[in-house]
Design goal:
The chain has 202 residues and is an alpha+beta fold. The chain is built from eight helices and eleven strands.
Length: 202
């Protein structure tokens, strides 16, 4: 299907979207696809195996690693409870490893955060006008609450640029975790910006 994250292969658009969300979660350290094969016996005593979709680990070890199965909430097997045997085995396996197991559906994945991540992704690694990033950093260091519009206008005036010329630089800094925003709310010109220490993005 394609990559939802560098080096991560996904098998559905919903898995792709989950992986993209992980790229825009500053707490995520790693994402591994199909990380383990869990052997278990079903209700009739027959040997079965189950491979969850992802293992997500977090910076600093908190929260604990998350073993994840991606399903649509309308999946007939999920709705009918036919998957509960494999999920019970996964929960038990995760507990033994000090992890937790979670089924994640489109109800959690396809929310405003995903729309924001989709918008920001093309700005990662984007080159901008010479001096623009330095100008944005300098404006942010001055302190005081700034939103996208006020920062863009301040820097545009200082550098002799237009607002449309400055905006890509702001979104690049947001996409690369140099500036923080509330990704659970739609990104607009009134979105509040908070400067962060630069870190390597996941």
């Amino acid at each position: 299907m394609g990559k939802g994250r560098p080096g991560i292969q996904v098998e559905s658009t919903l898995e792709r979207d989950f992986a993209l969300l992980c790229r825009f979660d500053r707490s995520v350290a790693t994402v591994e696809e199909q990380p383990v094969r869990i052997e278990y016996d079903d209700a009739d005593g027959r040997a079965r195996s189950y491979v969850p979709d992802f293992l997500v680990t977090y910076r600093g070890g908190r929260p604990v690693p998350r073993l994840v199965e991606i399903k649509y909430s309308t999946d007939p097997m999920l709705v009918s409870g036919q998957l509960e045997g494999r999920f019970a085995a996964a929960r038990a396996y995760a507990r033994r490893q000090g992890w937790r197991f979670q089924v994640v559906t489109e109800l959690e994945i396809r929310a405003p955060r995903l729309e924001n991540a989709t918008f920001l992704l093309p700005f990662r690694g984007r080159s901008n006008a010479a001096g623009l990033r330095d100008g944005l950093r300098a404006a942010l260091r001055k302190g005081g609450q700034k939103n996208v519009a006020s920062l863009a206008d301040e820097v545009a005036a200082a550098l002799g640029l237009s607002r449309p010329e400055v905006l890509p630089g702001i979104w690049t800094m947001v996409a690369e975790f140099e500036v923080a925003v509330d990704l659970d709310r739609p990104l607009t010109m009134s979105t509040t910006l908070v400067a962060l220490a630069k870190e390597k993005r996941p």
